[in-house]
Structures are given as C-alpha cells and as structure tokens.
Design brief:
Elements lengths: L1 E6 L4 E6 L9 E4 L3 E7 H4 L11 H4 L1 H9 L4 E7 L7 H20 L6 E6 L12 H4 L4 E7 L4
Parallel strand pairs: 5-6
Antiparallel strand pairs: 1-2, 3-4, 4-7, 5-7
C-alpha cells in the first residue's frame, strides 16, 4: 500500500492505494547546477483530474531516491497544462496536481524544501498544440532540484 495525494477544490487528502507494478516513464536531465525530472502528466494523474494514479509512487521512486541522496537541494515542482483556453478550472487543476506531487514527496519523508506551482493556459509550451499527439508533451510535471532555489 502507498499513500497517494488527492487534491480537490477545497482541500488535499491522502488515501491508501494498492501498489501497481509499472515501468517508470520519465526524462532525466542533468545540468551543471541542477537536475530535472520530466514526467508526462498521464503517467501520474487520471485524465482531467488532480488524483494520482495507482503506481504513481513507483513512477516517482527515482525522484524520492535522488531527493534522499541530496537533502541540501531545493525541489521545485511545476505542473504544466497544454490547454491554451482561458479556463479557470484548468488553472486550478494544475495547482492541485503540483500540490499532490509535493504531498506525495512529503509522505515519503523527503526532507528537502519543497516549492510547487501550476502553470496553466498553455504557458511555457515545449511543442505545438496544433496536433494533439505532439501537444501532449506540454501536459507535463517537472521536478527540478536546485541549489538555494536558484
């Protein structure tokens, strides 16, 4: 069993879910002064929901391991949406998704400073939204390890 973060429009809660065997699907980028993990949002969350999927904990295991090895680094979590529409619900959902990832890391006793935010309305795209399969890359979770939050 694992604890999974669940956020709604009024509050966050943690629920127990059975472990599901999954193969981690993420990108890891090492830079001179930071480490970045990028997850497709559909790997961690149910469609159009801030509820994490069963198996999300296993997906995030590399992040937890890295955080435990580097407790001096600040973790910045950003949830991105590919919806360019002026949707308030979409903007709130990405905030809750980022918060759910932070809550999960907290339940795993990650001692790093955690910062999280949602980036909605198609801001900071990494690909075009003209074709759905290409635009899906914009719907992502970025977990970045930084020195002193810089």
């Amino acid at each position: 069993m694992s604890l999974i973060g669940l956020c709604g429009l009024t509050a966050c809660q943690l629920i127990h879910q059975p472990e599901v065997k999954v193969t981690p699907t993420y990108e890891q980028h090492a830079y001179f002064n930071r480490m970045l993990f990028v997850y497709p949002k559909q790997q961690l969350f149910h469609t159009v929901s801030a509820q994490m999927k069963p198996g999300a904990g296993q997906q995030l295991a590399p992040v937890v391991a890295y955080a435990r090895s580097r407790p001096d680094l600040v973790i910045q979590i950003r949830a991105f949406d590919n919806d360019a529409a002026q949707s308030t619900v979409s903007s709130e959902r990405v905030d809750f998704e980022a918060e759910a990832v932070a809550a999960y890391l907290w339940t795993q006793r990650v001692s790093n400073t955690l910062r999280y935010s949602g980036v909605g309305r198609g801001q900071h795209p990494v690909s075009t939204n003209r074709v759905a399969s290409i635009g899906a890359a914009n719907s992502r979770i970025e977990i970045e390890f930084l020195y002193d939050g810089k």
